[in-house]
């Protein structure tokens, strides 16, 4: 009886030795699959986060992101005035000179206004850039409306080319109903041009239609 029990226990151990490595490999494969899935989801989320963030900023004016308008405000300008300052920057790697024609102007809230920035390509080759933008204070982004702006598209400049680029904007009259901005006297509109490595090929210069007499 004891002899048979010993044989059964030995057989059991032998069978177990053959099964456990397979179970271990199965668990490892499952864990690896789960980890791989998590990595794929994280990478996908990181790519999706950029357009979602941009959409969120445009929709809410978050982080000073300005809005896009198709026409002048229906109510027209109001008596309250506000100063608008203009800031310009160029990121490293883009050989452009970029500056506003006016550093500051005073406008009526709701008044459609056109200002110009001057851009010069100081390189002996064709270069391209795209402008990022915001306003300060950051909470004013949802009230700053642009009808036309060079920042809507990337800009390609020929060697040594100099160009005037317009911005057509107004400050939404509804800001007067926002009592958090009762003491607001100045808005700063800021642009930074970044280099574009693979510019979109266009049949015409991107600023050719931006003439002073046809911006509105």
Describe this structure in words.
There is one protein chain. Strands 1-7-9-5-3 form a five-stranded mixed beta sheet, with no helix packed on it. Strands 4-2-10-6-8 form a five-stranded mixed beta sheet, with no helix packed on it. The longest helix is centred in the first third of the chain and has 59 residues, at 2-60. The termini are far apart. It has one helix spanning 2-60; strands spanning 67-68, 81-90, 96-100, 104-108, 113-121, 127-136, 144-149, 155-157, 162-171, 186-195. It has 216 residues and is of the alpha+beta class.
Within the largest sheet, what's the order of strands? 1-7-9-5-3
Mean pLDDT: 77
Any idea how many domains?
A: 2
Coarse morphology: flat
Question: What's the Cα radius of gyration?
Answer: 30 Å
State the end-to-end distance. 104 Å
Tell me the series of helices and strands, N- to C-terminal.
Answer: HEEEEEEEEEE
Strand proportion, as a percent range, falls in: 25-35%
Q: Note poorly predicted spans.
A: 42-56, 59-63, 203-211
Q: What is the number of helices?
A: 1
Looking at the overall shape, the CATH architecture of the largest domain is Sandwich
CATH topology of the largest domain: Ctag/Cox11 (Pfam 04442)
Number of strands: 10
**Helix/strand/pairing class, anyone?**
alpha+beta
| Relative helix content | 25-40%
Could you describe the largest sheet, including whether it forms a barrel?
5 strands, mixed
| CATH homologous superfamily designation of the largest domain | Ctag/Cox11
